Amino acid sequence: MDVFVARQPIFDRNKAVVAYELLYRDSAANFFNSEIGATKATSILLSNSYFNFGIEMLLEDKRAFINFDKVLIKNEVPLLLDKSKIVVEILEDVIPDKNFMTKLKELKNSGYTLALDDFTIDYPYKEIIEIVDIIKVDFMLSSKEDIKKIIKKYSNGNKKFLAEKIENVDEFNNAVSLGYDYFQGYFFSKPIMVQGKKIESLEISYIKLTNEINKEEPNYKIIASIIESDLDMSYKLLKIVNSYSLSSKVNSIPHAVSLMGISELRKWASLVLIGELSFGKPTEILRLSILRSKFAELLAEKSSYKSKKHELALVGLFSMIDVLLQKPLDAIFSQLHVSDEIKLAIKLDSRSEFYPIYKLVMDYEMGNWEEMDKDLKLLNIYRNIPDIYIQAVKTTDDIVKFIKE
């Protein structure tokens, strides 16, 4: 039995990641089983997260928001878990009774953080509202007026408010101005604004290197000369090459370039470019770019796209470049040498040959399990997708630590 686990980040007002919501489903029957109940889904998720994947690896130093239904709370399942690592998320469709409220108060008194999911202005159960620490307000299901009323009505100095399903920077800024504390959604995966940092303000050597290295016939001498002209870039190349198990150290840039080869150089150059772009930005943007890249590459290896895995890795890596530069993709790619197929895939344009794999990456990330079922059938992939995703997460964490050193 497989469990699909994806992490959706939760941000604070400074756009720093403070927690992840773990998304999960049972997939024993043809990968998906729409009939499974919340009790079973959460039970499977917890078992796999703690015993198969490792909750520390999934969360690092963050906390996990996990949905618990009435049955699990009555059976005191949250008490089995570390209260410093989880937030007990109460489903909005729970109808409280005396026994349920007793168990909820026990959790509260034991030091667990309680959150109420998908809250709207007409939520009827005051006894639950009074006891929870965090109210998650669904910005798609609530009007602008209701969004204001909720925080005005229930703000008492003790509660925190989480704005969920935030889709763009205007909604984010509005939620901040109203006093919301945490934010969840896909606003960070879109351009924050049309105007922003010009691409010319980056180290021009990185742009030159990216353009040269992605040509059909790259010139090793030109590549080496570009790297040698930049001290920081030279250091980073020698650092990565000397991290390999070699019989002797490499101290020459041309030697390092020849040892790595074009495929590895392309991956390295793309990583250092994204690393440069992400300077001063939330680490989660860098992490998500690399995670998409590694996930796409690993999925390609399990499919008919194996020969295109490097191109698909580039699709994932450049998928957040509009956020990093705060400029439209077309304006960015007019100065970066990447193929039309890669550009179209990043825009989720079905005309790209890379679209099916990248769509699978995005559907998994967003927990669109029904769409993902179609993706897998189209690609004829019937592998343990959660294991592939976890492998991508582990590799991503290692790469991010290496880049940030």
Automatic annotation (TrEMBL):
Report domain EAL positions. 1-205
The HDOD domain sits at: 199-385
Descriptive protein name: Putative phosphodiesterase
